[in-house]
Amino acid sequence: MLHLAKGIVVTKPDQDEIIWTTVYHGNAPSDYIWCLVTYKNCEGYPISHVDHFAEKENALKYMQEVEPEVPLISLNGRAPEILMSISEFNLWKKSNEFEDYDFKKVFSKEPNNPKELIAQSPGQFRGIR
Q1: How many domains are contained in the chain?
Q2: Contact in structure between 38 and 23 (CB atoms under 8 Å)
Q3: Average pLDDT over residues 70-96
Q4: Paired strand residues for 6
Q5: What is the residue range of 30's domain?
Q6: Are 120 and 51 within 8 A, CB to CB?
């Protein structure tokens, strides 16, 4: 399950082995980047990984390329053998009443500015594209 949101990336001097990404579901700082967050489609929607982009257009293009490849519960967690175009995939989502990620279902109370904090090692961090 993919979700596009604004975010920031920081490293902390005392934690140089960790790269922190804050994904904002509300108001983001003015120096934000775009984060394409992959959530596991199970209870609590844990984050699988996050890709970082300087431009929204690049994030959307990447999302359209990879979303039809996402493993599906209906296929026992495997990706489809025959990939659909993004148009076909969007029609499939609609016809199967597939819901996109909704942060309001994850946060028990709606805070003023909901956000998620993701820690990654340098090996997990793919850089900003």
Answers
A1: 1
A2: no
A3: 84
A4: 24, 34
A5: 2-120
A6: no
HSE, side-chain direction, 13 A CA sphere, residue 104: 3
Cβ-proximal residues to 21 (8 Å cutoff; 6+ apart), any chain: 7, 8, 9, 35, 50, 52, 117, 118, 120
Question: Cα 35 to the chain's mean position, in Å?
Answer: 6
Is 126 a member of any domain?
Answer: no
Report whether 83 contacts 77 (CB < 8 A): no
- Asked whether residue 129 is domain-assigned, the answer is no
Residue with tokens 């975010």: 7
The pTM is what?
0.84
14: confidence class by pLDDT, cuts 50, 70, 90: confident
Per the domain annotation, does 128 fall within a domain? no
- The secondary element (H helix, E strand) that includes residue 61 is helix 56-66
The region of weakest confidence among 47-56, 73-82, 114-123 is 73-82
CA 22 vs CA 10, 30, 50, 106: distances in Å: 8, 13, 10, 16
